[in-house]
Description:
The chain has three domains: 1-89, no CATH class; 93-120 and 235-466, no CATH class; 136-215. It has twelve helices and five strands. The protein has helices spanning 5-22, 92-119, 218-263, 268-288, 292-318, 326-335, 341-374, 380-409, 411-418, 424-428, 431-462, 478-490; strands spanning 136-148, 159-166, 175-181, 194-199, 210-215. The chain has a five-stranded antiparallel sheet with strand order 3-2-1-4-5, with no helix packed on it.
Amino acid sequence: MTRPAADRDRAPVRSDEARSEKARPGGGRHGRVVDDPSTEPPTEPLALPVPESGPTHGHAEPDREPDPTAEPVRARGPGHDVGHGHGHGPAAPAGRRVRVLLAVLLVPCALAALVGLVLLRPTGGPSPAPGTALLQPVRGQVTAAQVTDCSPGDGQGRCAALVVAMTDGPRSGRDLVQLVPLEPGTPRFTVGDPVVLGWSGGNPDDPGSYQIVDFQRGGSLAWLAVLFAAAVLVLGRWRGLAALAALAVSFAVLLLFVLPAIRAGHSPLAVAVVGAGVIMFAVLYLTHGLSARTSTAVLGTLVSLALIGVLGATFSAAARLTGLDDQTTALVASLGVGIDARGLLLAGMVIGALGVLDDVTVTQTSAVWELRRANPQLGATALFQAAMRIGRDHVASAVNTLVLAYAGASLPLLLLFSLSGRSLGDVATSQDVATEIVRTLVGSIGLVASVPVTTAVAALVASREDVEPGRDGRAGSPRRRARGRAASRGR
Length: 491
């Protein structure tokens, strides 16, 4: 049978290649042996499938673009393979210099956060103001409920008589009757509802010393927390466990430092800055490990938080926001001590933006490092441009998420203003709505700024880091990937 012309042309080449490999020990696919150093290598390339790591004879094909992952071809002396080479990553000393620079920038900030934690530590909060005694919680369960008159004999039936069995408190096991008015803003109670009573501290046998203040929600919230932890552990495994530990650290800082320090009379903004710094360092390093990648995310978060603090203070003063909404006014009255209401507003901005910033900065640094690992030949500029394309998509959705989160939290307030009959301009410039607008826009500006800042720092750091193969084999060294492709094409 007559072979096709393409096969007849290709057969001698393969035969020559086989003879060339047999003619030298260790002959392979990387080149040929030059027996005579003075012999000039051929100027015309052989018609042979060439692996991406470079042509067999050390000459680049004119019609093929070089593979950025291919290992360089380094000429050797007589008796050595001309085509053999070794892949070289970024120099290790440059990576060490980058780590030193990151440490110089971050270590003083971490020390400042620790010093602030000591200086602003709570030493005991103020006593409640006279006449604002807090109710002591007493748990109970509704055992009977029926509609009755608010006043005996009025015949209107606008109240509900609830029989509550107390399960703790000064008269645990006793029943008491509570009258609850049936109004549009009053919750509806049924038999079996677990409720919380507020005891004023008066006569424990007098039903007038108690009032129903809330429902018990501990059981349902505990099950929801278990479901959340299970989802995080199933997907994140050990990284998920570290994330849960970091979440516990965040709650500990908020409950044991931030809130008591503000109650003790310290500046809310200073307390929030210190608390956010402690949370940032502890959470990011605990979750993602001590590395240059994590340090880059920490640096980007720190710069963005500083920008949010400056913008928040500037525009809160420019808009003359007092921070004295209904809840803050009631808080100041109950504490009986002067609290900087505007500082409390700024503290909420800083702490509220921290969680979203962590998400954006960690995502950007991970994107830069994965791009660098996928193509070790990318420099800082190319890494920045590629990662910014990812960052633009991320920040577009994150800003929308931030706006919707604040709008959802303020939905009852927005509904109230929509029923007031006031114009949109009047509603937007009112104290409560303007506060949410400033909070949302300042946080969004900090979020947008975090993308180029973090990406630029990550590109500079990653371009000077050594590229290490991934443990799962997906991000191997350039030399290994080039040889693998050459072997598959040869077959």
